[in-house]
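> run fold BZ3500_MvSof-1268-A1-R1_Chr4-1g06700 protein
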Amino acid sequence: MEAESATVIISLDKHEMQVADWIAALPLDALRHWHTPRIDISLVTNNRPASLHRLLSSLQKAHYFGDEVPLYLNLEQTADSVTQRLASDFDWPYGSVTVRHRIVLGGLMPSIVESWYPASNDTYGVFLEDDVEVSPMFYGWLKMTILYYRYSMAMRDRSTRLFGVSLYQQKFFELRPEGRQPFDAHVLFESLALDPTLPYLSQIPCSWGAAYFPEVWREFHLYLALRLSEMAVPIADQIVPEIRSNKWPQSWKKYIIELIYLRGYVMLYPNYANYSSLSTNHVEKGTHIKDAVVSKTRAQYEVPLMTRQESLLALPSGRLPSYETLPIIDLWGMVATDDDIIERGWQSAALLDSCPVPFRLDVHPSYNARELLCAKDYERVNRYVDTQPLAGSIKDIQRRREKEAQQILRDREAQANARITAALAQAEAAAQGDMRERPMMVPHPDHGSEHADGPRAAVLRQPGETVEAHREEQEELARAANAAEQRQTPHIIEKYTPRQPPLVEQGDNDDDADVVDVDSSEQEEASPLDLDADSEGEVISDIFESARSRAKVQEIEEDQDSADGSDGVDDAGGVEEEVGGRFIPKDRREPLGWEMEGEAADQE
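> ok
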């Protein structure tokens, strides 16, 4: 951006002097930025070489007032050879030419949205489809309005919600729920006691020739990426209530209308007499237009193009009006105020329950779509789409999502059935003795000693069924497993070796201290066990009783020469017993530790 005090040189050709009267109507602070904005032209074409030739010819005949204007030719994958040759051989004397050819069929959404991206906040993009034709004065209209509303000191802070400048003058409103409705701004403004040729602001984005501002177009790119990824809102959800564009899932206009509605953005429209416009649409057969509707709708949408003999200053007071005096038309063709459309969008954003939007009219928009769509479903974070997922209507999208959900349920059911089958096979093998479940060691309530529980049968049930419905089958399965395990194990109880550490007890005299090992030879001379005992539990209890009865424990006093003189005596003066390196209160019986040897241990 040039300094405010710098001298600005504007170079014009002779044939442009007669159509450059609008330059004198601009304020000086706007003229100082004459070379600051750069206007890029982006053309989108497919397989209509005659239409493309007409558009390129109209661009060559336009006046650019000494500016360098980059031109981008975007060819669809299905572009025919004539279209490709016409694009590659085109001579553009006003700047650089860039030809791009898609390798994947994108459709109108990516073809338009991806055809241009701003290099800076002083770069503006003009989008033209090949069935559009421009006026020789189209560039002068864009240059005049951008300089005045974007770079003059009086207007730059007031027009922060202006997202573009249209070349086309509207004759119909297409967004009302009941369908297309005729619109005449001249008649409307006369009824409001306004000048009938007053330019106006509208929330409707123009796709038949318009310049889009860099901040909003950059925000739209992010908004569209978030919207298609469904990170915050499902793609089938309606953001704008009661509007016809909700039925256009394949159109980029559906999503930019959502952004415009939520933010309260507006576009500047020309309103010259007799519908004189800076661009027109010839409504030719293409992606969204069929043969049957071409002849019927062409007369409705074609408008006359402004000629060189007409002046861009054919405006009220001979100059562009102040921004705050421009009337505003909302998405439904109704007159509104700036506060109305901003508050309406803020309320709808709050209903989304996605992100809190600060409602302050005196704050400029941040142009950050993440303020409108915040990721709430964390399973879908960073799940941006690779290609266009919107093949079909909203009903087709909903049906496809239902099929995906059903497939997920089928996959989960198959995984559950596989786990149930494996568990049944394991239980059957255990019942046949081919596989024994390892006993689970559970803590005993006395001093953490452990006992082995018997084998447990697996508890199996089908999905949706209760345990009570299979209780008898489970009990039978458990009994069969226990019986099979008992048959596999010989009914022999081998010798138990009690493991009792020396018992130390406080005696009356230190000289009487003695130590008696309960693992004495007297226990080894015990009578052999009766193998015909009624149960294994009775044999074990007999062993315990005989071990307790034959254990001879003599009382001794604690050695007074030990390293810690307080060992064996608690704080209250009570006497403790030391067993296996730990002290036990005297009034508490020490349980016998024991272990089994041989297969009897496994059986237990």
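The chain has a mean pLDDT of 77.
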